Amino acid sequence: MVDGVKALQSVAGFVEGPRFYPYLSGRRNLRLLADFDEPSSRSRIEEVLETVELRDRAKDKVGGYSHGMRQRLGIAASLLRQPRLLLLDEPATGLDPAGMRDMRDLVRRLAGDGITILLSSHLMYEVEELCNRVAIIRNGSIVYEGMLRELLATATTGYRLRSREPERARTVCLNQAGIENVSLDGDELRFSADEDAVAALSIALGQARVPITQLVAETASLEDLFLGMTGGDSSDHDREAVAS
Description:
alpha+beta, Rossmann fold, Alpha-Beta Plaits, 10 helices, 10 strands, about 40% helix, about 25% strand
């Protein structure tokens, strides 16, 4: 039990919307929270306010803060104890586009400072932009856990190839090992293959002097993968993406 308490001393965070006394200033709220923590926390108040870019508004009452400012104050409160692990549940919920951008920038800066961040979010584009590992949860069970890039690598559904000489390109594709399901629509070819076969095809097209204007992979989005793994349920309560 002692080890568990010690481990939690390096953990901080908040769930969705942090709560503060609206009639007190941002700085005063942090002082009250610091008094519940170790003595050194109070000495870090100005530093964490600077980190979340609230120092200029620290003397203002929290009741006059925007939603984004309250979210950043919540992160400031979490940083008082110098956590090694920061838990953030939907930190961008309810923010306007500018606020979401600022929150993403703040999360990147904190991660750059060496803090491990566990982010829980339903916003798949946010997960793609910020995280390097991801866990997808359905009905309380993890259905995927691993590197985000490895998950996205499984999302390739085929390739599109455009050429000024589509018939010649089609002939090369049909004669190339590993190129399957070739179809031609106008000047665009579609086919399925693994990366090695596509690399060999690009060489073969060059050797045949077939002019290529585009060769791109068609991929499913992280949202598509998420919905596929969670069954596409309409309820948000039993499915979640947790990433770090």
